[in-house]
Amino acid sequence: MLSVIPNPPRVALPIVGSDDLFPVRRVYCIGRNYAAHAREMGSDPDREPPFFFMKPADALQVVAGSETAEHVYPPRTENYHFEVELVAALGRGGRDIPAEGALEHVYGYAIGLDMTRRDLQDEAKRLSRPWDLGKAADGSGPVGPLHRAETIGHVAKGAITLSVDGETRQQGDLSDMIWSVSEQIALLSTYFELQPGDVIFTGTPSGVGPVRRGQTMRAEIAGLGAITLAVV
């Protein structure tokens, strides 16, 4: 049996220290997972339960760690925002995964950006509509090389920063997460049967803001290096 159209390529992340690739299945994202960011977005982190949204897997942009990648400014927006995030990639899946054992399901970690058409997201919020047009633009999930957990351990603390043209815009610590990586995995597994290849964008610290064509973003997480993107 033949496919009636060409099979679309599957996004796969490079793995540090290996020629192998990590194929991506689904992309989950948690919203407002750092208290200061929740407040800057007008929410109360002490009273708001966690919530998730999704990006298409083919919205990811694979970024080599040592090179400056070109990042295309998407259409239909004049307010395109950066959000630097730790990305956790799952090597094992399951349902109703207990939080105390959830990190055993993590294959590795990477630096990611949840790029957002903020004007479209704000309009969706105002009209109580889904966030897809704001969050799921082509290339809206740049991700760097994957660092295996068996090599670096599980990333729970350390600086997470983003600069634009050399000026620091976002600065926080992974330990500031409201919901830890293990808690996110456990909660997601009550809604979905998680599978190998699923990745989770784990939230962004405060300082999110717009980027313009011609500017260069550099995202860094302690222990994971950095990725650099020139907006074109």
From TrEMBL:
Superkingdom, natural source: Bacteria
The UniProt record lists the keyword Hydrolase: yes
InterPro entries linked: Fumarylacetoacetase-like_C (IPR011234), Fumarylacetoacetase_C_sf (IPR036663)
Keyword Metal-binding: yes
UniProt keyword terms in alphabetical order: Hydrolase, Metal-binding
GO MF terms held by the record: hydrolase activity
Domain (Fumarylacetoacetase-like C-terminal) ranges: 27-231
Protein name stated in the entry: Fumarylpyruvate hydrolase
Originating species: Methylobacterium iners
